[in-house]
Design a protein that fits this description.
415 residues, alpha/beta, binds pyridoxal-5'-phosphate, 2 domains, Aspartate Aminotransferase, domain 1, 4-stranded antiparallel beta sheet, 7-stranded mixed beta sheet, 17 strands
Length: 415
């Protein structure tokens, strides 16, 4: 029996956790807020809000440049946050942790720096059919620039990667595999360990988009054995505008800078510039200092709860929600993979998701409707959009009950 199976939902004190999130305690349209839009962004615990507040109130200064007290404090807090990130994803070195704006920027960094400098026309980037636009469009831009090709591994009707097809598409021209760890639109947990193994046996490096994994699953980049891992702070209870690209030091070392400017240089003359060491080579300009510090506070918070406890609790919530929603006539769940993270994406017979979302909002229930920045996923299931409830560790079974009642009200209204 693994650790997850021995954990119970009662191992997490959800009432106490909810008290840590001021944003959860408000009324919307006169009803208590039921926040089920966590895949889009998460609410922030007081620890994160206070870390941001502290930085701007008392430590506000630029990093790496000053000898004065405030700058030293800001630099220390910023670099301490890097150490927190390192532990959170079990990286071996701080210099492998690059602060970026989010997953989108991390993938663009790899496309612009790693891929553009190494790939040539005809080289293939292999993704899956369930990717977020952030893991599609940067590769299309690259194709336009240097003539690489985007190859897409299919997904099944339940929203799982067809592994044999993936393996078949891994060919002599594959130069990079870039895949989501967890799908934002369907909740599918991808077999990333197997994906990496198959790619590496052919000498192909792997980038994992961990935007939807970091908030829900233990991420261990050494165990995954991937080459790049990207995630966003705001989806893991931290601030917006900050995220992480982790890369193997030997790869990052050989990559050209992504942007030029202050902090990424060692020396500049008009004739020649030499670049700074990792990770600063990839952190041009004043970084989002407060954001990084807030992200450190968020990851500390999640670590204190225990990510395995979070996963176990969310599994129970998902199982509960799946059963409840499946019992509603006229509702079809989109994304029914056997390994799923806490996402309930669905369509209602004869009702447009935007209408459903609007009615749910009037009951204080925040869900997302639309294509979830994954239009090819919608095309795969031949639907324009879904309504998506995405859960976090502060959600409760009562909130899922409220969602189910809300859906029934929507159906009555549009009958
Ligand atoms: N990848 C996945 C799977 C996502 O769900 C998202 C955001 O929803 C992104 C990438 C992009 O993240 P961000 O907008 O924070 O850069």
């Amino acid at each position: 029996m693994n650790t997850l199976e021995t954990l119970k939902s009662t191992d997490l004190d959800v009432s106490a956790i909810r008290r840590d999130f001021p944003g959860l305690h408000q009324s919307v349209h006169g009803k208590p807020l039921v926040y089920l839009d966590n895949a889009a962004t998460t609410q922030k615990p007081t620890a994160v809000i206070e870390a941001l507040d502290r930085f701007y109130r008392t430590d506000c200064s630029n990093v790496h440049r000053g000898v004065h007290e405030l700058s030293e404090r800001a630099t220390k807090a910023f670099e301490d946050a890097r150490v927190v990130v390192k532990h959170f994803i079990n990286a071996s070195r701080e210099r492998e942790i690059v602060f970026v704006r989010g997953t989108t920027e991390a993938i663009n960094l790899v496309a612009s720096s790693y891929a553009r400098s190494r790939m040539k026309a005809g080289d293939e980037i292999l993704i899956s059919a369930l990717e977020h636009h952030s893991n599609i469009v940067p590769w299309q831009l690259l194709s336009e620039q240097i003539g690489t090709r985007l190859v897409v591994a299919p997904i099944s009707d339940s929203g799982e990667l067809v592994l044999e097809e993936f393996e078949r598409l891994l060919g002599p021209k594959t130069a990079l595999v870039s895949m989501a760890h967890v799908s934002n639109a369907l909740g599918t947990v991808m077999p990333v360990r197997e994906i990496v193994r198959l790619a590496h046996t052919r000498g192909v490096p792997v980038l994992i988009d961990g935007a939807q994994a970091a908030p829900h699953l233990a991420v261990d980049v050494r165990e995954l054995d991937c080459d790049f891992y990207a995630f966003s702070g705001h989806k893991v209870f931290g601030p917006t505008g900050i995220g992480v690209l982790w890369g193997r030091a030997d790869l990052l070392e050989r990559m050209p800078p992504y942007q030029g400017g202050g902090d990424m240089i060692r020396s500049v003359t008009f004739e020649k510039t030499t670049y700074n060491d990792l990770p600063y080579k990839f952190e041009a300009g004043t970084p989002h200092i407060a954001g990084a510090i807030g992200l450190g506070a968020a990851l500390d918070y999640v670590s204190q709860l225990g990510i395995d406890r979070v996963t176990a609790y969310e599994r129970e919530l998902l199982a509960y929600g799946t059963e409840l929603l499946r019992a509603i006539p006229g509702l079809r769940l989109i994304g029914t993979a056997s390994e799923k993270s806490a996402v309930l994406s669905f369509v209602l017979d004869g009702i447009h998701p935007h209408d459903a979302g609007t009615v749910l909002d009037r009951s204080g229930i925040a869900v997302r409707t639309g294509h979830h920045c994954a239009q090819p996923v919608m095309a795969r299931f031949d639907i324009p959009a879904t309504t998506r409830a995405s859960l976090a560790f502060y959600n409760t079974k009562e909130e899922i009950d409220a969602l189910a009642s809300g859906i029934r009200r929507v159906q009555e209204l549009f009958r």
